[in-house]
Amino acid sequence: MVHAELRELRKEYDDVVAVDDVSLSLEDGEFLVLLGPSGCGKSTTLRMIAGLEDATSGEIVVDGEVVNDQSPAERDFALVFQQVALYPHMSVFDNISSPLRAAGVEKSAVEERVTKTAELLDIAELLERDPSELSGGQQQRVAIGRALVREPKAFLLDEPFSKLDQKLRIQLQKELKQLQEEMNITTVFVTHDQEEAMVLADRIAVMDAGHLQQIDTPENIYRKPRNRFVADFIGNPTMNFFDADVREGTLHVDDVAYESADTPGSDGVTSMAARPEDIHVEPAPPDDDRLVATVDLVEMRGSTAYFICQLDGRELTILKEDNDDVAEGDSVALDFDFDAVNFFDGTGERVEFARAEVQS
Amino acid sequence: MNLTDSNDYAQTLVRGSVVVLLGLWLAWIWLPILWDLFTGVSVNPQTDPPTLIPREVTLEHYVNVVQEEDILTYIRNSTIVTTVSTAVSVAVGALAAYSLTRWDPGNGQVSFFALSMRFLPPIAVAIPIYTMFVGFGWINSWRALIVAYLTIGIPISTWIMLIFFQKIPVELEEASRVDGWSRIQTWRRVVLPLAAPGISSAAILTAILMWNEYVLALVLTTTSDAQTVPIYLAGFVTTRGVLWGRMGAATIIALTPIVVLAFVAQERLVAGFTLE
Q: How much is the ipTM here?
């Protein structure tokens, strides 16, 4: 049973704050993803958790004990690096068995555990090979094997799949998720790929510029982003942003009144964000009193189609529904699913309306 | 001529020139050695007019050099000095290169200072070192040369090994630490094996430099107790004339260890020169 906590964890390099007082707690067996753009501090946070970097201030607490001064091995955390980091001068077997040998486990037990782990990861026939003879995916499996063979308290991964091709990445994501659920190991996974995060995570911690923006389940992060950054970063294709404000009790989107929107109270709303699937279009009769955009392009992504529209010089991405009778060049009126859209105030923070909650 | 013909002509011309140039260069290097070889075995090396291939051959020069001229003593001195000084230089250099690549002290200042010593000609510090060693009572001892040669050996072996250590990814050491190995164990198990090619390249190049060093040896040693092979060879140019035969024999004997070393380790040598 592992319960871990980060308390106001901070990392400064000279005058740059890489990690700014991040606090979060980690449940036993949870798959937590640290997500954010490059340079947001997620890797630094992971390395501090692992023990490869010293925190400038703040505490890392494992099972009630402050472990800041402990080495990575003492904390019993295993780490998988982005650059794989297999020992090139040792065989796959020696690579995987390395942590066991460091701990002084006796030879017969070592052999048994390594073989078991290798079978779990489907690399049993590669044990005598050299790392240089393996493909990228196989190498990453070996790295995962090296981490898991010791059955660590926590399993830390730093963008392990970012160097692999798409298909392999998806395959390994699936295997990793299954493995993690079977073994019930507490896992922290760093990535900049929000789709990867949505697939793998029990909870996602979104970071930007050293700050923790939001930590929640993938679904909540998708449906109720806490600020504009999270709204924009999550979701593929991206969020559509509009100016919005409430005048005399009526919501205005880009200065167009939408009386059907139910907005009792509206402290400081200045913008609205709607996902492609929360906007609906229909051919616009002249003099329509809703927002009107022009369809530039119909874009196919896999089996889904999107309208790429122009509105006042801005580009909108709207989901095409099957019965939409709209073609390129048409003018379309926009309707919004006001139960699903998000409102933000002047500082970019989420504004919640006291309206009937859609169950999430 | 059409275009292909003129191109072929140009190519032949270029290849021909390259061959000639290479030939001249090889001759420049090999002829003196050949000359030493022939002179070393000829009965009367000082013929007039001078001839290359001797009319009569003898091994007496070789015998003289070993028995009367005491070449083995000088070889002994050179071997001791070179071996010990190289070993220390490489050990210090390896640790220095490792530290410089892992932690960059003073933002590159320290590495710049350490490596710029490479350009220091030993002759510039010969007199000050001499004065110091007189004070220590070290003149004409192996100790003197071993220590003095560190001024050559440490900068150059650090410089060569710097590149090799840079090539070892830090993540490998981090992975080792995460696995549970201590820093010393990581050094032994991960860093050293991967740095081994660089270490052997540095060792060989440093050894060659030290074996051939003349100036510091000349200044710091006075008798055959400590004098090295380069001094010995220069000694055949006497006030009574040049002892060609013995010099030829002695040079060939003196060259042999280095040539053997270079041959055996040529792969490492090339790696060291090209920093691969």
A: 0.79
